[in-house]
Amino acid sequence: MHFICFLLAFASAKASVDLFTTVAENKKLIGVAGEIYYLRDLQINEQSANYNLHIKANVSSLQFFWRSKGALAKYSLDVSYTNQATTVLEKWSSNISAAGVVPKRLQSFIVTLPCAVKADVAVDVIIQLNITIGQEVTRLALPRRRFCSAKPQADAVSTIEDPALNVSRLSDDDKYFNSVQLTQPTTVATNRPVITAVIIASLFTVFASFIVLICCKSRPKPGSVPVTSDELLSPPLLDMQLREVEESNFSPQPRVYPSLQLQPNIPESDQQLYDDNYSVRAPSALHPPSLVPTSLIQPSLVGPVSVDPIQRNPLDFEISGDYVECGELIQSGAFGVVRMGYLKLPGQVKPPTDIMIKTVKPDATPMQKRLLLEDGLMLRGLQHPNVSPLLAYVDRSESPMVLYVGLGQLNLKIFFLKPINRHGLGISHLTKFAVDVINGLEYLHSKNIVHKDLALRNCLISPDLKVEISDNALARDLFPEDYHCLGDNENRPLKWMAYESLTVGEFHRPSDIWSYGVLVWELLTYGDMPYALIDPFEMELVLKDGWRPPPPTDCPEDLRKIMLACWTLAPESRPLAEQLNFELTAFNCNLMNYV
To answer: Which one is the CATH code of 243-592: 1.10.10.10, 3.30.1240.10, 1.10.510.10, 3.30.420.40?
Structure first.
């Protein structure tokens, strides 16, 4: 009896269920080119399961694929509506029964959530699926937000055949999946004596094989090498917050261009990085800046510098703290503060100048004071309409300060955190913000400056909605949730960093381009956190496996492809700032023609 119990327990341990959605289904719903697993070997992927997926008004049915292995797996299916959903949606339906057995072979089922009213409304539902194997019950709850529309919608028909599906991981028996038909679960035979005999015989065979396997593994073969931990790593479960990069599909809407015989002006320091690959990339939709119509290019530099001492080149402009008067507090961290203030220089005839001040608290450590000046002086001596101008700095003081021209600017990330600021901002505004940033980044790269920390938190927006790139002084202190330490006592913006920056600490122009792609994603999501459900320690593996943030809601195709180009794993394959500037400026001009 104990032996039989052991065999039953062993068999139960081998039981598993997979539940996922296919490439075609995910492209239809959210534009994700990859499978999304909710259950893999009966283990729930919490990130995917907890993600509240939006169902568009023209989609009424959801298609899932599943199969079980090992012991018999029973299921029960239900969809719970909120009070509001009961008045908006008709009763849900499915092509399978509400309870039954999970099929052994790969099959699909559909859950239909039809709208009952013609109105622009969104309601929440939860698809509940319980899997029972023996005494163990796995409960899966999938939240969904169902959108209905007052306008007639052409229903997006789900394609059963999915030729884009990668079936390399399936067994030969399962490769019929590409043309699988929707069927009811297979009925289980009720001849219990036969079933019992078959189960006992199978369990005995499994147990014998298990013993033989252990014995064989205990005797290493001559010359064998132990398996390393790296070889045992399996790909992470697909997260609903991620998408697979479509590197070969970067081709925004075709336009007519002159012959591409010219190459962009690339600094000699970067020639080796780009020369070997540019001839391959030139025919793509991202073209050299020499082809940009001059009417679309903003000036690279400001006009002549004023002789007023307050406007002099700040490269050597260190002043005494006695000339600075601190005012209203804007932002405060553990040791850093940002204030508005005034600057009055000796002999200055004009009224005191409005300034923005970054400084530290009195109890700041010497290292924190040094970091403020190192980061704050990164952009000194630069003048460009889309780069925040450094005015002066105070060094010889208990509280060093970095001073900027104060024109009512607000940190761009804080700007998006306030709902009143987001109201009325459309895709044309967000694209214009992206153009402003790439203008500034192109200027920095022309000066051989790599920013290393490009993100919304390190940009400023003026009252007239002009965006400027700023330094990253105090960013780690003021936005601690954006920075993480990997055990080396250095906080880094891991979720904005390029793959080579994460792995080997390389920072160059292409790594800035990667961060710019994340910044564009931040803009289109009104300041959301990228990779919100991903552990920072998993970022290297996530990026290596090709997963990227999903396209935001209503994201234009041109912007989606630009972001994906920025996130190419190979640095030499990413576009130049000049190329991005051209594409975004052209897209923005085309967009304005329809606004």
So the answer is: 1.10.510.10
pLDDT digits (tens, 9 = 90+) for 355-408: 999 999 988 999 999 999 999 998 888 999 999 988 889 987 678 999 998 878
User: What single DSSP character describes residue 521?
Assistant: H
499 φ, ψ to 5°? -60, -45
Distance of alpha carbon 113 from alpha carbon 129, whole angstroms? 16
Residue type, 162: D
Q: What share of the chain is helix, strand, coil (3-state, %, to 5)?
A: 35, 20, 45
Is 512 marked active-site? no
Q: Are strands 459-461 and 410-411 parallel, antiparallel or unpaired?
A: antiparallel
Specify the CATH class of 2-189 in words. mainly beta
Identify which of 422, 411, 390, 402 has the alpha carbon closest to the alpha carbon of residue 330: 411
Structure confidence by residue, pLDDT tens digits, 445-483: 999 999 999 999 999 999 999 999 999 999 999 999 999
Catalytic residue, candidates 453, 471, 512, 558: 453
Q: Provide the pLDDT for residue 117.
A: 87
Domains of the chain: which residue ranges? 2-189, 243-592
> CB within 8 A of 437, min separation 6: which ones?
386, 454, 459, 467, 469, 516, 519
